[in-house]
Structure formats: structure tokens, C-alpha cells
Amino acid sequence: MAITIASLWEAPDINPVNHKAKSIPALNPLNLYGRVFLLSWWGFFVAFWSWYAFPPLLTETIKKDLNLSQAEIANSNILALASALIVRLLAGSACDRFGARWTFAGILLIGAIPTALAGTAKTQGELIALRFFVGILGGSFIPCQVWTTGFFDKSVVGTANSLAAGLGNAGSGVTYFLMPAIFNSLVERQGLSEDKAWRVAFVVPFILITATALLMILTCPDTPTGRWSSRSRDVQRHLDMRDTFFSATTAGDKKGNASSIDSSGLANDTIQLNSRRGQGRDTDAQAREDDLLTAASWELVEEPTVESSLRAVGTLSTFTLLVVYFCSFGVELCVNSILGAYYARNFPTLGQTGSGSWAAMFGLLNAVFRPAGGIISDLIYRHTKSLWAKKALVHFFGIMLGVFLILVGLDDPRSKSMMMGLMTGLAFFDEAANGACFALVPHVRPTSNGLITGVTGAAGNLGGIVFLLIARYTENSADYPEVFWIMGVVTIAGNLLVAWIRPIPKDQLGGR
Predict the structure, then answer these.
(1) Cα–Cα separations (whole angstroms), residue 51 to 76, 96, 141, 444
(2) Which residues are within 8 A (CB) of 88 and not within 5 positions of it... i.e. 6 or more apart?
(3) pLDDT tens profile 366-418
(4) Cβ-contact 21, 33 below 8 angstroms
(5) Given phi > 0 = left and psi -120 to 50 = alpha, else beta, which region is 184?
(6) CA-CA distance, 407 to 401, in Å (whole number)?
(7) Is 223 helix (H, G, I), strand (E, B) or coil?
């Protein structure tokens, strides 16, 4: 199906078997699919904003107010990622058990509480504790991706996932503009002292997070067919209504005509259409019917058990996702945490607001570069019908990311134009790699989609923690160039390590 500009606001065509949309009405919140897409990316956006609200003000204001050392700031950055890692691991199974909508809203409401309390920190220990609990919001990425996967068909799911994540990740860039702007407004227009202004500033993301969670609960369903708890009955109803869905197919084959059922939305490497299972047109029609119904059942998310979870996670295909996302998203999280300080070190005339504004560009580019990774992945897949092609794209982006990291580390640019040019190239390959990775995730063990999404997202957070620990314990904790080239070497090595592994497991449908 061709994607047009009008599909951004027109009601999408719906796959009759799984009720997923074949286009993304991103500009139409009145449409059910458009509304779910909007709240998916917006929920992650405000969560990411709050999660990264501290770094723009830590460079000078909070550091001065709480008398923090550079090592203490690094510790708080690491703890903020550690809590998100834990929540991401738990959120995956929670999505499979309770549905993505309730998991999403729950994370936002829980994370809103420490956001509101962020301004109460008066010591280094209190700051670290609050940042740990605010980090809960970083887990919202998992239900964001699971929710869009549940509403958008395989033919566009890579685009939907990467666009939702890219717009959401842009919150990490927007916060570098918004938090200093809110802080400056409170000081200059409201007459608050600096030590009070930064504390009051956190009330803004708290209000938005709470309102967004309530909108999710009140205006959206769990799945395209309704309640999460009834999803099994919905698939069974499709099975019982097979004559309704396939009467046109059977009748068409008996007349020697092509089927009127459009199965293009189900075409993916987890499903192998087997039209040679019998002789004669009636048998062929039944074969196509069985294949499409198998597709509907295959996309039904199982309630997680220990056995099914171990089976889903314990494959080399899942390991590949963990490694590549460990590298790419780990790099992004680390860069988001240190880039403002890196700019301030190399260009001291920028000051807190200026260095924060330049650092914000790295996060803001997510709105374009991460979706680009998913869109390119979907385009390649439509033309090749090969998951190997999707996987090759992930590794290409990952290796090029490593190259740019090494270039930044070795050159340590003191020219603004050189620094911005290298960081823009780095941002493209980093964020496109993240988008391409999560264009591949829905194909791997789709019956455990929440779990696979959760462990992959958690691996990204683990990467961020590891890279920040490297930054924390380099010989000079402000030796940023060394951190960059080390991340580059790790990223290239990680991608080469798993490049040979098949995209989906052998025992999965289409895996042979």
C-alpha cells in the first residue's frame, strides 16, 4: 500500500484480520489510531522531558546551590538511568499481562510524584534519591513502543515505532531549552531567587505528565478491538467468523478469479504463505485462509510465564537486539548527560544557557533522524521482503555511529563549526540506528512483544550506565574525548560481533 501525505489525516485502511491500521493518521487525533499515536509519542515526550530536566540546570545553578562536585553529578546521572533500566525490564512483562495503556499511564502517574518533589532536594543524597525515582519515567519508552505495535500493521510498524520514539526522544532536547527558559522566566519576571526558581520549574512537567496519563485512561482503548483482557476472545471470534472473512476468497477461486482479500498487511518473515499444501483451487483457498488465521493468532500476545519468557529471551536473535541497542541508545543517553558540560568546557563563553541550547540540538534531531531509521527500514522491507535487509541496515548505522564517535574523540573539536558538524553526523547515525532497531523488534517473538521490547529497551539503559561509568572513572572525569572514542570502539565491535546472527529464531514461523 502506497503511503501518501493525505494518510497523515485520513482514516486509515484497517487489516480485517488483526484490526491494525495500514497507515499512520498522525495529524488526526479524532481518529482512534491517530489518538493512540499522539498520546504514545506525547506521553514519552513529557516523560523524557522530566527525566532529563536536571542536566540543563546542573551545569551551574543546581551545582552551585547544593555545592555538588563533578563526581556527584555523574553519580546522579547514573542513578537516573539505573531506575529506568529496572522499570523497563518490569514494564515489558507488565505490558504483556495488563496491556500497554495501563502500564504507560501507571508509569507516568508514579513518575509524576518524584517530579513534583524534585524541588525539595537540599543535599546531594536527596538529589540522587529524587533523580533515581524520577528515572522511573524513562521506563515509559516500553509501553510507548508496545502500544503502537498493537495498533499499526507490520507494513508500517517500523515507521510508527520510530516516529513515536523519535518525537518522544525529542523531549531530551526540548528540556535543554525549556528548563532554562522556565528558570529564567521565574527569576526575571516573577522575582524568585535562583535557589527557589529551579525548584518551582519542576512543577510544569509534573502537571503535563499527570494530565497526559489521565487522557490515556479516559480517551483510548487497550487494543484496536477493545479491552486487553478480551483479546483472546476477539481472536477466537475471528476464527469463528472465518466464513465471513473468506467467503469471497473461496468464491473467487471457484470461478478462477483472484482473491479479493488483501493480505499485504500480513506479509512478513514470520509468516510463510504455503499455497502448495494441496492440489486444486479449493485446497489453495483453504491454505491461504489457514495462513491468514495463523497470522492473526501469531500476533496474539501471550500472558507471560517463566517458561515462555525464557524461551523468548534466550535466543541469539534477541541477543542481537540487546547488543545493538546497548550500543546505540547507550551512546545517546550518555551523550545527553554530558554534552552540555562538554560544550561548556570547549566553549566557555557559551555559559549555562548557551551550552544547554547547543546540546539540545542533539536530542531535538530525534524528531527527524530516529523516524528516518524506521522509514528507511520499512521501505527496504517492502522492496526486499527480507528481514536480513532490515538487520543489515541496523548494523550499517551502528558501525557508522562508531566511526563518528571515534572522530569526535580523536579530534576533540575546538571549532564550533567542526563540533556541530561532527555531532550532527553522530546524531543521524545514532538516532537512525535506534529507529531501525525498533523497526526490527516487532518481528522477533511477536507473541512476547512486550517482553522483547522491555529487555531491548533495558539493554539501552544498561549501555547508558556503562558508558557513564566510563565517563565517571576516566583518569580525568571531564575527559570527554576519551569517553567518545571508547564508546566508538565498543559500538563497532558490538555490531560486528552479532552481524552474522539470523534476524529471527529458527523455531519461529518463517525462521527457516
Answers:
(1) 12, 25, 12, 29
(2) 138, 139, 141, 142, 454, 455, 457, 458, 461
(3) 889 999 999 999 899 988 988 999 999 999 999 999 999 999 999 999 998 99
(4) yes
(5) alpha
(6) 10
(7) strand
